[in-house]
């Protein structure tokens, strides 16, 4: 009997190491080239050095370096107004009519002229305490924006439109119930509509409540741009109607804070006052109750993104590294060896992107984490107030700097795979990303052109670093030169990522089709 033995079935072993092996090989390649490693460290260092240069100037004769008030959400705020008040114990309400709002604007250091800032305010307010930055809710008439309910500095709800006058007064009401304050408006004092409600977490048992007037600076078009002239406002009120747990004490009048720059020197040089007017009061005040947003309206105040200005220099260095990391193998004829060792060309490109992207991310993140607190401390020591921002905004700016450098490096790597020439690759990326940023932030282009560049070019990615917010109720020059971008932080970063993704997809297609 003959027995035929069949050979055992062949065992197909998976490729040893797979993607991990390729990634390790690319990491080894990157770290063993001293120039790439030193340039990555250099990117970190240059971000810090340029940031230090930006904080080197001392403030001689400018704003006194003092801590700016901080609002409930962690942002720097103005909390300056003239206040006629008394404590409200427990729940209750205050109702008042406003029959006029007029103002004066400083035309010269010694002369004033009639005028009213659009966001001059006269109304009623529930204030947790007299400490600047404390929580509040208010109903008001404004110079040009009708009736508004505002609370905790950043919240603004529109009510009736139109300006107030003796013929067209506005009645305002605030009702406090626990931590909730509700605002109402009326044109006749009888028929009321709700404007909004604010929950002021932790509102004290006896907040200060009463009438207030304030006015930020008025804007003026000049030959060189927008000017900001100190202004003061005067509101005429009827007799307030009170209900609930009022103390019955006499009204107190005082200026709350001096402002952080939105009113120039007016709130410091002009004393507010309360004057009886018939059965009511005429109150004069200056300042603002709003976030501090930087720009020329708050001259001498620095924003955190000022300390990240060196990111463009670090980005250029990482673009050079990423371009060389891809193109040097083409120039030296080694790309064929790389693809022979790892036939999956897409896997090689992805590995290179992960390595150089991670290196750029670490350099940018570490540099930003060092510069934000250090730059703020150095600026304060040199006499410059610094705008506080919520911790989430600060974290996003730090993380975003690393992400921006990573995305730009991947973009440069992909362009390098397409063009195969280092110098050309660096030129393309710098011209498309860094040059538009510099042109826009240096104010050498018209505002519309700057905004367009920062929307449609990879330079939109710099928006991820902005630490200031555009508020409609605060007037300043919202431009890239002052830290503002036309796109929101993550939207701008998404534009950069889109460029990187398109370039990367094109590189994947080409390296698979072209001969090495």
The Cα radius of gyration reads 30 Å
Largest sheet: number of strands, sense, barrel closure: 16 strands, antiparallel
Total domain modules: 2
Number of helices: 10
- Unreliable stretches: 1-6, 10-17, 260-269
For the record, give the distance between the C-alpha atoms at the N and C termini, rounded to a whole number: 59 Å
- Tally of strands: 18
**Proportion of beta-strand residues:** 15-25%
On the 0 to 100 scale, the average pLDDT is: 87
Helical residue percent? 25-40%
Question: Quaternary state, please?
Answer: single chain
Instruction: Please state the overall shape, judged from the principal axes of the Cα atoms.
Output: elongated
Order of helices and strands: HHEEEEEEEEEEEEEEEHEEEHHHHHHH
Class based on secondary structure composition and strand pairing: alpha+beta
């Amino acid at each position: 009997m003959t027995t035929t033995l069949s050979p055992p079935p062949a065992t197909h072993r998976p490729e040893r190491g797979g993607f991990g092996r390729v990634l390790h090989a690319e990491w080894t390649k990157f770290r063993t080239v001293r120039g790439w490693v030193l340039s990555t460290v250099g990117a970190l260092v240059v971000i810090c050095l340029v940031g230090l240069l930006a904080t080197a100037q001392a403030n001689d004769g400018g704003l006194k370096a003092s801590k700016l008030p901080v609002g409930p959400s962690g942002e720097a705020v103005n909390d300056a107004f003239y206040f006629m008040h008394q404590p409200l114990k427990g729940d209750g309400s205050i109702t008042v009519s406003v029959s006029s709002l007029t103002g004066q604007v400083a035309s010269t250091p010694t002369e004033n002229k009639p005028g009213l800032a659009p966001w001059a305010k006269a109304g009623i307010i529930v204030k947790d305490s007299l400490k600047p930055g404390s929580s509040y809710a208010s109903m008001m008439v404004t110079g040009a924006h009708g009736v508004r309910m505002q609370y905790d500095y950043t919240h603004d709800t529109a009510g009736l439109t139109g300006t107030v006058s003796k013929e067209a007064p506005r009645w305002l009401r605030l009702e406090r119930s626990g931590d909730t304050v509700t605002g109402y408006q009326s044109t006749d004092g009888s028929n009321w509509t709700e404007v909004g409600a604010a929950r002021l977490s932790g509102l004290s048992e006896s907040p200060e409540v009463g009438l207030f007037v304030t006015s930020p600076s008025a804007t003026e078009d000049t030959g060189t741009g927008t000017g900001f002239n100190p202004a003061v406002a005067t509101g005429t009120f009827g007799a307030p109607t009170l209900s609930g747990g009022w103390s019955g004490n006499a009204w107190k009048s005082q200026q709350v804070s001096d402002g952080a720059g939105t009113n120039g020197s007016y709130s410091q040089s002009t004393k507010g006052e309360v004057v009886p007017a018939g059965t009511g009061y005429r109150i004069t005040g200056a300042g603002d109750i709003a976030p501090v947003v930087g720009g020329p309206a708050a001259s001498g105040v620095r924003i955190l993104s000022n300390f990240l200005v060196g990111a463009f220099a670090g980005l250029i260095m990482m673009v050079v590294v990423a371009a060389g990391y891809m193109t040097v193998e083409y120039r030296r004829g080694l790309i064929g060896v790389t693809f022979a060792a790892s036939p999956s060309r897409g896997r090689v490109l992805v590995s290179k992107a992960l390595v150089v992207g991670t290196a750029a991310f670490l350099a940018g993140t570490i540099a930003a984490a060092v510069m934000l607190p250090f730059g703020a401390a150095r600026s304060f020591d040199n006499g410059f107030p610094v705008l506080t921002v919520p911790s989430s905004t600060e974290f996003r700016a730090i993380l975003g700097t690393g992400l921006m450098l990573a995305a730009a490096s991947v973009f440069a790597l992909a362009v390098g795979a397409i063009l195969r020439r280092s110098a050309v690759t660096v030129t393309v990326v710098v011209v498309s990303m860094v040059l538009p940023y510099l042109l826009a932030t240096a104010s050498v282009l018209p505002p519309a052109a700057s905004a367009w560049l920062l929307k449609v070019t990879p330079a939109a990615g710099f928006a991820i670093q902005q630490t200031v917010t555009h508020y409609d109720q605060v007037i300043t020059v919202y431009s890239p030169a002052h830290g503002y971008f036309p796109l929101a932080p993550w939207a701008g970063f998404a534009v950069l990522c889109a460029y990187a993704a398109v370039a990367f997809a094109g590189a994947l297609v080409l390296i698979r089709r072209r001969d090495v």
